[in-house]
User: Fold this.
Amino acid sequence: MAKYIPDIKSHRWVILAPGRLGKPAASNKDYTISTKNGLKVAQECPFCPGNEAKTPPEIDSIKKDELWLVRAFSNKYPITDIHEVIIHSPDHCQDLEDFSDEQLLALFRIYKKRLTTLSSQGVPILFRNHGVTAGTSLPHPHSQVIVLPQQINLESLFLEPVKNMVLDNNHFVLYCPDFSQYPYEVWITHKDCSKYEFGASELLEIKLEHFNDEELLDLGQLVQKTLKGLQKILGKFDYNYYIAPKPPFYLRLIPRVVTRGGFELGTGLSTNVLDPAVAAEELKKVIR
Assistant:
């Protein structure tokens, strides 16, 4: 069971999570990857088709012709008492950048399903770690959802104003906020957010759990275009993204191209070496 320890003065928290001990770590160099039924599968990977018994029991899934497209189960090495893993695809090597619209929609549908279900049990935060410097321990593409008690004081950011816009589609806008803490940091938010003043109660209703399939696919396609565009600038890169744990909705994607040092750790301040306006202009050239 997780233990929450507060700092009385700052109201910040530490989570003691002994369940994380023993968490496995592997890279694709450790696996034998072959092609089966058109899918790249690693025989040793617990997240690949045929190895379902190596994970905790399935909590949720979206299937096609009795085969799963995405699946969710409890994390064997949890941070909190409710900690789930969402497998993006049966394919060991394919991720969002190369997904079909069908696979994108399946992924964002299960995001919606898990957040809808877990929001009654606390504050769920959904996130994706990609690459070793971003915290990945197993390479098969996956996201995670952690539920925190309502009384925990979160330091997550509120929705930043839309400045330095890069691209939009029917429902969402992609931009580099002035408050970007990392080079090439990008945010995606729903266009409805711009209809209301800061603090308006209507903003509390703009969340992933309320999006329809058209909106979910629009969101997935914009994330996909963003990742492809960033690859053109950065090459192969590690990144994190997360969905705002409290409304209004935003998805924040952070390329892990810098390492925080003693100054940032000691002060809580961030140093960004790239002006967000410049980043946005660069991204406009590669994200279409």
Remarks:
- The first strand starts at residue 3 and ends at 6.
- The helical segments are 101-118, 213-234, 262-267, 276-284.
